Predict the 3D structure of the following.
Amino acid sequence: WPEVGDVDDLKLAESQYLRDACHDFHTRIEGVISAKNKKGKAAAAASSLPGMKYCVNASIYVSKEYLPWQQGVLKTMREVYEQGDKSFPDNKTMLGKLGTIPDIKKYMKKVMPFVQYMKEQTAQHGVSALNLSTAFDEVPLLQQNLAYLKKTLELEDVQILDSSSADAKVQDQCYPGQPHGTFRVEEKPHVVVTFLNRQPGKPHFTVRLPVFGGDSIMSICRRVLKQDGFANDVQLLTFWRFTDPVSGMRVIPSVTEPHTNQTQLPAKAVFSLTDDRAGIMCQESLVDGGLGDAVVVGDHLVYVA
């Protein structure tokens, strides 16, 4: 019978942290997109540009310590909690006690929402929610899971930043163990490209996805993985263009030589849009940071998973 090892409480805490953060970020993103849709209805109706789609970028702020007034609140809450038979008094009593502390008194407008939030966290996670710091370093944890965050939240770009670089409003809402995300929804030109899969005996299908100017192969990989439920390894994905983007689609594919009249896209390829936005072009990213000559790809690509 297999022996059960010791429970790794730190790993469990990190896992719960990521789940809670993703849930909070997803809710915020929905709110931002909803507001963008309401504001953009009139503009969208008047726009003559085809192929416009939203692209979401994120800045995630992490705080290594609470603000001084927040630390005072937490220390007081812990004292009251431990003296009150593991429970908190009503909000009025709690507010009256905190109002007598000089370092907290001038922040009273912010105190009650913070107290209510910490009460809820204590009810969910126990008294450890009142700790002044986390048991793990949040920044490396988020950086190690950037690919997961981008895929789960459908983000194009993510920056992990210290909360000290944010404005006062963000700092008030960013705590140790509670990162704060700000999201920018940009409306960007794109071309909808059809990605074909012609692998015999494989459960992959054709998917249609947006390609933005400046997209890399890795960006396309993430979108394909999101749509193709049977593809799960980004390292195995390769993309092929038709050597002739006009007539390539009209040639009957060969089972024995599936890539006849096709050219594999390099791993460092960068995409751009044609002037009429009817298709895309591909350039290889060079070692010196520049881009090679652009090759017209069209609006169909082949992928192998």
Remarks:
- The first helix runs from residue 9 to 46.
- Confidence is low (pLDDT under 50) at residues 42-51.
- Strands lie at 52-62, 157-162, 180-196, 207-212, 238-242, 262-264, 269-273, 280-284, 295-298, 300-304.
- The radius of gyration is 26 Å.
